[in-house]
Amino acid sequence: MKFPKSVNMYCPRCNAYTKHSVSNYHAGQRRSSAEGQRRYERKLKGYGSTPKPKQKRFAKVNKKVTLVFTCSKCGYKLVKTLGRMKKVELV
To answer: Which among 2, 21, 57, 72 would be 20 to 30 A from 43, CA to CA?
Structure first.
């Protein structure tokens, strides 16, 4: 799917329709000290270091695409998920 690099959409901080730049969402680095990460590492410590059998094949072919919309006026960021698709191209 081809998606424009800039979109005119509503900004809740400006309370008006402004131009937003579009970029792909990338997950940040995980914190090793976070409670969920510590719990996950504790779970992996068991026999053979795997809590569950590993998945042999994946049922899903595509990933859900998440885009970040940044307001050009105030810099407010909106994160929206488009859904499942094989490829997103910012044009």
So the answer is: 57
Structure token pair of residue 6:
């800039």
User: Residue 78: which of 4, 1, 3, 19 has the closest Cα?
Assistant: 19
How far apart CA 3 and CA 90 sit, in angstroms, is 5
Among the listed residues 63, 80, 78, 89, the one whose alpha carbon sits nearest the alpha carbon of residue 20: 78
Under a CB-based contact definition with an 8 Å cutoff, are residues 7 and 82 in contact?
Answer: no
Q: What percent of the chain has pLDDT over 70?
A: 96
Read off the pTM. Answer: 0.76
Q: Rounded to 10 degrees, what is the CA torsion of 46, 52, 54, 55? A: -170
pLDDT of residue 44: 80
